Structure formats: C-alpha cells, structure tokens
Amino acid sequence: VDVYAVAGNPIAHSKSPAIHQRFAEQAKQRMHYGRLQPEVGAFAQAAKAFFAAGGKGMNVTVPFKLDAQNLADVLTPRAQLAGAVNTLWKTEGKIFGDNTDGAGLVRDLLAQGIDLHSARILLIGAGGAARGVIGPLLEQAPKSFIIANRSSAKADELVKLFADLAASKEVALESRTLADLEDPAKTQYPFDLVINATAAGLTDESPLSSQAVSNIFVPSSFAYDMVYGKTTAFMQQALQRGARVSDGLGMLVEQAADAFLLWRGAHLTNLIDPRVVLAELR
Ligand code: ATR
C-alpha cells in the first residue's frame, strides 16, 4: 500500500490524516497517510529517510515549508513564486515540490461565494503564509490588492516580487503598514475581502487596531482568517462591524484535495468532494 505522511512540529493535532483518509474512501484509493514530527532543523534528514524507505508523498506544514522547498529537486513555478512547498512527491528518482495553499484558499473563497474578480483585497501579513497565497489571488485579477504588514520592509519586498504578475493582470498592487490603515487618507476604504495571514491569529491578538477596523470593514466585507478551529480576535472585530467571516478550515481541506490529486491522478477529480469532507469536519 502506498504510504504518505504530513510532516510538521507539532503535528499531533493535524487534521490532514483524517482529510486524506476521506478522499481515499471517496476515490476508492488504497493508501496509508501518517504523521511525522521531525526535530526543528532535522526536516531534510527525516524527509530523505521517508522517501528512501518508499514513501510516495508528503505534506509539509509549519515550520518546515521552506526546508521542503530547499529539499525538492524540482519545483513547480507556483512553488517557486510562493517561496515555500507544502506538497512533495517522488517520481523517477527525483523529489518534486509544489505549493497548493494559494489554490486551496482561492477555491474556498469561490465556494463561499466571493467574487474575486471585482474584489478590493487587503492581505494582512508579509511572512511565508502571506507570500504563499499572493500569486493565486492575483491570477483571479481582483480590482486592487494591498499587502499590509506591521513592518514595512517585508511588504515592500513582496510588492516588488509580484509586480510583474500584478501588472499582467492589471491589478493595482501596493503595500501599507498596519499603522497606515488607521489613517482614513492613506488608503481607499473599505475592502471587499480582508485576509489575515499573520501569526497573530495563533495567539489571541488581532493585527488590527480598532481605528483600522472601522476604516476597513463594512457589512458587505468578508473577513478570512487562515487559522482554523476558532473564532479569532480578527474575526470578532469583523463580526462586530457586521461583516461575514470565515476561518481557514476550508483552505486546509482544499489544499489537501490538490495534493491528493497531484499524488493519485487528476482523473480522480470528480470522485472527491472537498466540500463534503469540510462539512463532515465541521
Ligand atoms: P508565517 O509563515 O506564519 O507567515 P512568518 O514568516 O514568521 O510566519 O511571518 C509572520 C507574519 O505575522 C509577519 O507578517 C509578521 O509581521 P512582521 O513582518 O512585522 O514581523 C506577522 N505578525 C506576527 N505577530 C504579529 C502581531 N502580533 N501583530 C501583527 N503582525 C504580526
């Protein structure tokens, strides 16, 4: 039986094994999907051992996505642009790396009825999680796209990195600091879609001050937190402004669906139903 695993640290509470087991049942695939917890700094060693022992594919989560990118012999263009890898597999002696996070986020947003093509988007955060989703969001040709970060340097870097793609889609791509968002004159408000990609979601803080919140959200806004399993402080702020909110569980399921299809074959696309698996998890 073909063996797969998710690698992260910590990993005990990962929902990926349950998600992939459900896809395997839906598509009538025989596979085993387990958990791996390499020590921080020992990802490459663990991944090499996994593939040497016959492992077919691996999902990679915090904090190993950059290590996974470095490990891969071949990267897909979107993994290169994302600067991170969440899906690995071995074919003909080579380890391939892809990133399905951004595509997963886009599909979850579309499934929740978000019209990305006309959206004014605010992405909060400029770390690895933010970078991973910018390309696929820009591909949808939104109306405008602002990357806001606590410190400006990283957001400016991302704007440079994605400038060509944004120009080709005719998207106005700009950076702001979180403090800028408190100033009604510095940015055009409100936003249709606000995505929290900061690590602040993991603790019980929001990256947004109350002044920023009142500029950013109107009742027609949609607030998406990439963290899952709770109503975060960021989501609560949006709810208080009457906006619609979502956690990131749908993104988790959708990125897993893409990984499953990369491993097991695109011909299985119509047999798996990520929205059913998501409903079961809820
Ligand atoms: P990840 O891979 O989860 O994106 P990361 O690359 O370390 O992790 O990036 C963390 C992001 O969360 C950054 O954008 C960081 O802002 P800075 O670049 O200014 O450090 C942001 N972040 C973390 N804690 C935050 C907080 N309490 N408030 C606002 N932003 C925060």
Automatic annotation (TrEMBL):
Q: Name one Pfam family in it.
A: Shikimate_dh_N
Give the catalytic activity.
shikimate + NADP(+) = 3-dehydroshikimate + NADPH + H(+)
- Tell me which residues make up the Quinate/shikimate 5-dehydrogenase/glutamyl-tRNA reductase domain: 115-200
EC category name: oxidoreductase
Catalytic residues, per the record, are K65
- Keywords linked to the UniProt accession: Amino-acid biosynthesis, Aromatic amino acid biosynthesis, NADP, Oxidoreductase
* Domain of life, source organism: Bacteria
Q: Which residues form the signal peptide?
A: none
Q: Where does NADP(+) bind?
A: G125, A126, G127, G128, A129, M226, G248
Instruction: Tell me the ranges covered by the Shikimate dehydrogenase substrate binding N-terminal domain, including all copies.
Output: 6-88
Per UniProt, shikimate binds at S14, K15, S16, T61, N86, D101, Y228, Q255
What the protein does comes down to: Involved in the biosynthesis of the chorismate, which leads to the biosynthesis of aromatic amino acids. Catalyzes the reversible NADPH linked reduction of 3-dehydroshikimate (DHSA) to yield shikimate (SA).
Q: Mind telling me what this protein is named?
A: Shikimate dehydrogenase (NADP(+))
Q: Which organism is it from?
A: Polynucleobacter yangtzensis
* Taxonomic lineage from the root: Bacteria, Pseudomonadati, Pseudomonadota, Betaproteobacteria, Burkholderiales
Provide the gene name from the record: aroE
